[in-house]
Amino acid sequence: MAIKKTLLLLIVFFGASYVSSGQIYWVSLSGPAEAPPNNSPGTGKALITIDAVANTMRVQTTFSGLVAGVTASHIHAPTAVAGTGTAGVATSLPTFPGFPSGVTAGTYDQTFNMLLASSYNPSYVTNNGGTTASAFAALRAAISAGKAYLNIHSTTFPGGEIRGFLNLCPSINVSIPNAFALPAGVLPNTVYPAYAPASSLTLQANVSGGAGPYSYTWSNGATTSSITVSPTATTTYSVTVQDQNGCPGSASATKTVNVVNISGGNKGDKIVVCHKGNELTIGSGGVADHLQHGDMLGSCEPVTVRSRSSVIAEAGLTIKVLANPSPNYFDIQIRGKADNNIRLTVYDNMGRVVETKSSLSSNQTVRFGNFYRSGIYLLEIVQGPHKQTLKLVKSN
Q: Taking the model in full, what pTM does it have?
């Protein structure tokens, strides 16, 4: 229970730590990391965010299990050798302003203006150029070189009970790949509430970089690596990730899940499917067989499911499919101002890649599908981070 509470505290404490500018360093605090080492059971974590443009330093710390009450905490720099040794105090004396005192556990979150003399040990400024600007440059250099450590002192260990050197947070990338409600016969990132087996799908957060295990925070409150969603209206879901050291991931990954109404019949109790270019309305019990034979949920009319379509429109890119459904081929008309970074990919009803054309420019017409068999295909258009997905119908 104590471990669970500590983990929860860390997740909550570091939950809003990500900034788009500056560098973030992580610290793991322990007694054996002291010089000389000690056997304190105390532990802690910290994130140090350096913003050289705003001239600020944010210190976020959580600690517990000390054998005696805290007397002070600072950042020391520089040591002679990275990751080892001792150094004088670089930051505020006698301690970080407002740092918990006389306790064996606590949290701390303070942002310092590093152009103020009060943010430093006066002797550190004197020894590093005589100005706060030069002192900040020296401190950044020491931190970047691995020659700075955060120390928490206590009455039992006046020289420091737990400490840790600052380490640059690694790059952590987060993405949510396309998800399908069924193995075949559905559009990506789309649910169909009228047909129960396709009324939900699972979004998976893929993470690379950093040190696992990771912690996840979804926009719907979930904290698992994947979520199963069943929206009744088109909804955008987002996720942020941190690694075990509290280092934040890249900007939140998002995925928009679209909702398509496929109910049919006089009472709305039937399901609409597209069968070789012909629209059928059938009972739900027969839908699975139709999908296995290459049919698709929904109308045969051209359907566009867009991700961030308004952004694409603002970028001046327009995609239009001529003659859809088509018995022969599809002409894809690309219009507008765009770089030569447009990629078109065609998938079959099973999600397999049929054809790809990349490095396309705007103001041209691209032809697809001469050799395609009759059936349903999905055309994905990618320009940078933006995507559009179009349903194509190859008729007999």
A: 0.66
